[in-house]
Amino acid sequence: MPRRPTIARSLAALERTTARLRWESGRIVLVPTMGALHAGHLDLVRLARMKARRVVVSIFVNPTQFAPHEDLASYPRTFEADLAALAALKVDLVWAPTDDIMYPPGFATRVAPEGPATVGLEDKFRPQHFGGVATVVAKLFAQVRPHLAVFGEKDYQQLKVVTRMAADLDLGVTVIGMPTVREPDGLALSSRNVYLSPQERARAPSLYRVLKDCAARIAAGQPIAATAADGAAELERIGFAVDYLAVRHAETLQPIASVADGPIRLLVAARLGQTRLIDNIGM
Fold this sequence. Notes:
By secondary structure, this protein is α/β, with parallel strands linked by helices.
């Protein structure tokens, strides 16, 4: 049976263990997660293992990035299964703080990101989300003090927000993005996929298919705005409630008018039943 990772539940235990890991290897890589690990998370860990000898995975369901009407209470929590999966990948340390450790009484300092956090995508529909993400990731970087951190591209706007924050605040962490991991039918892996009914799961891969169709049309010279509108209308016909289907500059996430303004990223967010799905592709 694989050896379980060391589990740190206090800041003192975290500091002791990360100090030892740094002394042993010189470099630490962090994979921040909210648990409920799936194959996509495990691929992040595999990439982390390729980048440094010592790998730390954080498991913390961050309450500050959930709005009151969102799924904080029902968000899947599978800690023992997560530990078993991380043991199989020989993760060195799991940082599993409680809410009180991350946000102790009197906590009053928050990060307010701008730039890619204020471009009218996720921030339009989840106004408090990136403030919560930026604050918790800044704290994780300060606590673990990794040299590298690995994030998935499925949450593409989040990746850009965290990358910008780490650079702007001189946090000394290199942020690495990893391409989205998908099911064989194209659906992006997500902890929230477990919420889909069998009928919804059968429709869900249409999100990726429509993105690919839109990218092909834009590459063939069709107008960007009309193509995005057509893609959103097709998803609505399939049964999605679309928040956005946007074509943006891949680095700044600002709107673009033509392929000459690229590189390009297509991003979509839509509800299927009670489940909100996001996806994106580059071109």
